[in-house]
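step=encode ok
step=design start
structure_in=
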């Protein structure tokens, strides 16, 4: 599995643990609502800025998003 798919799976796992929809995560992270599905599908090469936004929204440290 490539890194984008692993990252997307980790985001999805943490999001679903919170019981959040993709839309709720996008709103909380201040991202477009269509962005989260493409991240979770492994189709986006996300920037460090977006990683930080997602980590803050999920209330986790950045490194937690990168442990697969």
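sequence_out=
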């Amino acid at each position: 599995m490539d890194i984008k798919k692993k990252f997307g799976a980790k985001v999805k796992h943490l999001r679903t643990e919170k019981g959040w929809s993709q839309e709720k995560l996008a709103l909380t992270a201040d991202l477009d609502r269509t962005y989260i599905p493409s991240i979770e599908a492994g189709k986006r090469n996300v920037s460090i800025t977006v990683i930080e936004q997602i980590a803050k929204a999920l209330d986790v440290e950045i490194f937690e998003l990168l442990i697969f």
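step=design ok
step=annotate ok -> Residues 3-17 form the longest helix (15 residues).
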